Amino acid sequence: MFGTKDIVGLDIGSHSIKLVRLKKGKKGFELLNFGIIPIPPETIVDGLIEKPEIVTNAIKNIFKTERIKTKEVVTAISGESVVIKKINVPKMTEDELAESIRVEAEQYIPFDIEEVNLDFQIIKETGAKEAEKEETGEEGAPKANMDVLLVAARKELVEGRNKPIIDADLKPVIVDLDVFAMENGYEFNYGVPVGEVLVLVNIGASFTNVNILVDGATEYTKDITGGGNRINHELQKNFNIDYDTAEKLKMGIGLNGTSEKDVANVIISALGELSHDINKMFHDFIKSTGKNINRVILSGGCARIHGIEKILTENFDIPTEIINPYKNIKVNHKVFDPQYIQEMAPLAAIGVGLAMRRLKDKAKPS
Ligand SMILES: Nc1ncnc2c1ncn2[C@@H]1O[C@H](COP(=O)(O)OP(=O)(O)OP(=O)(O)O)[C@@H](O)[C@H]1O
Ligand SMILES: [Mg+2]
Asked: Is 82-153 assigned to CATH 3.30.1490.300?
């Protein structure tokens, strides 16, 4: 059966590739593999794979180390070349929308429509837009509209993401989005967050993926440029050090005379700038919906920064906690070192969401 076919979740980040493989049994998921392999700087820039051969080798290596024979891979894209937008269109069938989506989408897409891959998901039926009500007048039949989640990604980005996978003799069967993968992973582990506004924030090296969920459905989502690399940049500037030294300093290694407090202050200040960008997004959301945000859930490598949940709770003025992507997944501690799995858990969040996908899925646009 397609639905149970083994699949590998491959989260290709600019800092590292994370591999997750799950077994789907009667009682839920069990972790089969978790692997991580570093990616050198400048290999993936602004979400685009600039040096595919390095990524291909890394993928081959990680499959070899993990001894995986499965060929089917689910991967994801993110960044500013991806647009995810909730739009409101006249009510129509899925087939009709598939026909007209290009025309509907044109006004929302900042790139040439011929250069994008489009996908959509009908969310729910709504009333007519105010302007349309007036046009129709009281006498006309009441028009129905519907909310649709529109996804547009530059073809270049999708093809670029698939190339190193194909070159590694694997099959990219689904290309998801980082923000949807983190949502799937969260909801499987914690349940659909009904009756609240929950924000998933994944702080990686190049990007911070933000997904604002209202009653468990994406209302507003964006990939903000910036993450751990921004912090490195500040550390490099402040202490006059190179990237690798900054990278270690951020993890509390190799202080070399630098005071821990000074390092912490630079990290806090860089996180302040990133929080400022995220807060701008929160304010736009609050302004347009009139809703408040109840909780923030953090993932990504930067969620490992010491004390980050406290720093961000203050910056956002919203309770912020770190995700446990294995909350509802069986992890055999005879196979996996519990301390390692726990330490790496925030980095695994997107990979776990990807590994949950099965070929028959069409739950989210892909
Ligand atoms: N223990 C740690 N302490 C502080 N920072 C850490 C730690 N571990 C990882 N990071 C930082 O997390 C970032 C990597 O996170 P992640 O693996 O989520 O990014 P990525 O998916 O490779 O990148 P992106 O998706 O942004 O291209 C790096 O900036 C790295 O320095
Ligand atoms: Mg990432």
From this structure: yes
Scored b (16 or more CB within 10 A) or e, 296-334 reads: bbbbbbbbbbeebbebbeebbebebebbbbbeebeeeee
Q: What is the mean pLDDT of residues 138-150?
A: 78
Pocket test for ligand 1, best of 15, 82, 343 (most atoms within 8 A of CB): 15
Kindly state if the Cβ of 351 falls inside 6 Å of ligand 1.
no
Q: How far is CA 232 from CA 38, 304, 310, in A?
A: 16, 14, 20
Q: Is 207 in the pocket of ligand 1 (CB under 6 A)?
A: yes
Pocket test for ligand 1, best of 177, 231, 250, 263 (most atoms within 8 A of CB): 250
Alpha-carbon separation of residue 127 from 17, 62, 101, 144, 217 (angstroms): 44, 50, 20, 5, 18
Cα-to-centroid distance, 130 and ligand 1 (Å): 45
Whether the model clears a pTM of 0.90, i.e. scores above it, the answer is: yes
Higher pLDDT, 260 or 3: 260
Among the listed residues 202, 168, 195, the one whose alpha carbon sits nearest the alpha carbon of residue 52: 168
The helix or strand, by DSSP H or E, that contains position 269, with its residue range, turns out to be helix 260-289
Domain ranges of the chain: 82-153
Backbone angles phi, psi at 348, to 5 degrees: -85, -10
What's phi and psi for 201, nearest 5 deg? -125, 115
